[in-house]
Amino acid sequence: xxxxxxxxxxxxxxxxxxxxxxxxxxAVAFSILHDQxxxxxxxxxxxxxxxxxxxxxREMEERKIKTLLTRFVKNAAIDIYRKNRREQxxxxxxxxxxxTDAYRPIESYMKSLQYRELIRxxxxxxxxxxxxxxxxxxxxxMPVHEIALRLNLSEENVYSRLRRAKEKVRKAxxxxxxxx
Length: 180
Prior knowledge:
Elements (H helix, E strand, L loop, with lengths): L1 H6 L2 H24 L2 H15 L3 H4 L4 H27 L4 H11 L1 H21 L2 H12 L4 H8 L3 H19 L7
């Protein structure tokens, strides 16, 4: 594909890259924002920020393009998330999610199915010692020092297990961004 990219116009190249990576970009944005429309906005913002890099991407390896796009969409989603938090004021995240989900029950249900499927996949990938730490940290919201106390581990060990778990999941599921 490297040779083909060199011959494409900027518009064709942007369309090719967007078509190839849009699902992965959307998944990254949705994992941060948990809102279909805002995730789509984040993908659009990321594409706009990517345009100045089109010339450089003609010589880039596919994985570098993917990394760059992932960075752009992650930053765009985080910006939108921060804006949401500022605008929410006194409404808690749980209340905001409840209000949002109350008006979109089908989307909420589909989102919960996607999460359940992803969680099942992650559960299959991770050894028990990593899964336990991941559950405590991300599902129960426990701070690292509390996990360390409960499991009789050092905080460094908890951080190591979390990092290794992320690496295993990223390695096992990371190729999904290439599909598009």
